[in-house]
Amino acid sequence: MTRQERRVASPRVVNIGDLRRLAELRLPRAVFDYVDGGAQGEVTLRENTRAFEDVTFRPRNAVAVSGCNLRTKVLGSELSMPVLLAPIGFSRMLFPQGEVTAARAAGKADIGFTLTTISGSPLEKVGEATQGPRWYQLYLVGGRECAEAALERAKKAGFTVLAMTIDTGTFGMRERDVRNGAGVLLGSNRLAKMRFLPQLLAHPGWLAGFLRDGGMLELPNVIVPGRGPMPLAETQASLARSVVTWDDLKWLRKAWPGPIVVKGVLIGDDARRALDEGAAGVVVSNHGGRQLDGVAASLRALPEIVKAVGGRAEILMDGGIRRGSDIVKAICLGARAVLVGRAYAYGLGAAGEAGVARALEILRTDLVSTMALLGCESIAGLNRSYVDVPASWATLPAESRALA
Ligand code: GLV
What we know:
By secondary structure, this protein is α/β, with parallel strands linked by helices. The chain has helices spanning 3-7, 16-26, 29-36, 43-54, 98-108, 123-129, 143-156, 175-180, 182-186, 197-201, 204-212, 235-240, 246-255, 268-276, 298-309, 324-332, 342-374, 398-403, and strands spanning 56-57, 72-74, 77-79, 83-85, 112-115, 134-138, 159-165, 218-224, 228-231, 260-265, 281-284, 314-318, 337-340, 387-388. The chain starts with a helix and ends with a helix. The model is unreliable at 400-404 (pLDDT under 50). Glyoxylic acid binds at residues 89, 168, 287, 290.
């Protein structure tokens, strides 16, 4: 067992909350808060996890479940369980070669990995780290020409599905980041960074790894024509200038021959629009509560999207998944699979690849035991009859509510 594996072994780490605590210990405050925090009052952030408590199980007891088949196919991607790693920006802040490290763990677990545009590692290197399904998440920082070049490279590197994020016209107002001066930490002014010295020195393990890794100064997959890789310090301002619209989806369908999923769908109308514009799937997501605070928990938004999609496309969801039982609930309510973000980021921040592997092992073990206790043998066998939702969840969709 390696040192990192020991760090996250049972009984020290039994659930994702334990990985979160270890990540908090290893990471400087500004880095931990960037991952852990949400927008404004963090109401949606809290709701994402809390909403799972509103959904209760209806088990079939006295049923012998011998083996449990967790395999799932999503948009042509075969997964050993219905989980993909969600795109997370700036992962090299969490652990050296963060994206490559997480992709390797995803590959070994035989699940999917979604690489963010805001990656500190070249997508080719990430592509080589896993034989599992590779999805690429697109922001339009740097413009369309720049995106086309990245998509060309992504195709060659074995990425098969494109996720177009539609909820990030600008960064959400993340108060922890403002207080911590996260912009300064990611910026280029070395002198201004001196204020972080005490918290960096207080985390020598993290600091040594970060320096050895060469820091994270530019985005190697955002090559601005005539200029080269976009400097990290420009990311936020560039995002604010590059709102993704439905027009972009039309263009993207020409630029990307494979399936496209639209990520950040919270209302039925947007789901229908995404399908009308040719998306093969949607991701019900509020960006982990990091964008517009006060929107519904992803799980709460899921039924409206399921109704709007009406079986015409595949539905994924993310937001608040911390347990295998959360995954089961999402699937019972109509998701095909889930994306997990913080659940693996805490593992990455706590212990690199060993931490991500441990997070995935926790989710898998929990999935198997939840399915056995539910009396259901396969993910494909899960349906709405295995859960109850509060009566208020079954109300009219928003359009008709306005008229009522
Ligand atoms: C980036 O997409 C973020 O949420 O920080």
